[in-house]
Design brief:
With about 160 residues, the protein is an alpha+beta fold. It is about 20% helix and about 35% strand. It is built from two helices and seven strands.
Length: about 160
């Protein structure tokens, strides 16, 4: 199942190499680690990984957070031709050793959103529709000023 695999596997993909920022409708900015296309039996997924300092174990709060992020991320999934999107919170926990020899433990929690046949997006396990995409999407911007280009969905 796709949702279980979000936490367990590392599909081959192209990862960003710079820290990125996404502006939310509230004006808040989130630090984006990676946006990548992933390919599963369920279909192609556009997957956003963002850094958080929030409690990953509070799944109710994390789902609520994904609902806040979705309107800013949705335009990338839609224009890329995806019917499945995923949002994963990443929380670094600790580092042991020096920069080159260190061990970093990272906690992750993710959620999947799917577009149904009527065009409505919902988080897996929810009956409520997600908020619509923002009318004027903001680019995902790198610290060097570059904008992130999203990989379009593979067509079969």
């Amino acid at each position: 199942m796709l949702a279980a695999s979000l936490l367990a596997c590392s599909p081959s993909s192209t990862r960003t190499t710079a820290p990125w920022t996404l502006s939310l409708p509230s004006g808040e900015h989130i630090a984006v680690d990676t946006v990548r296309a992933e390919h599963y039996a369920d279909g192609d997924v556009l997957h956003l990984f963002y850094e958080t300092d929030r409690d990953i174990h509070d799944t109710v709060a994390m789902r609520a957070r994904a609902r806040v992020i979705w309107p800013a991320f949705a335009p990338f999934a839609i224009t890329g031709g995806y019917d499945i999107g995923a949002i994963t919170a990443v929380r670094p926990q600790f580092r042991i050793g020096g920069a080159m020899l260190g061990i970093r433990r990272t906690l992750k929690w993710g959620v999947v959103a799917r577009r149904d046949t009527s065009g409505i997006w919902r988080l897996d396990g929810d009956t409520a529709a997600l908020a619509p995409p923002v009318a004027e999407p903001q680019p995902i911007v790198g610290t060097n000023g570059d904008t992130l280009r999203v990989t379009p969905r593979r067509r079969s």
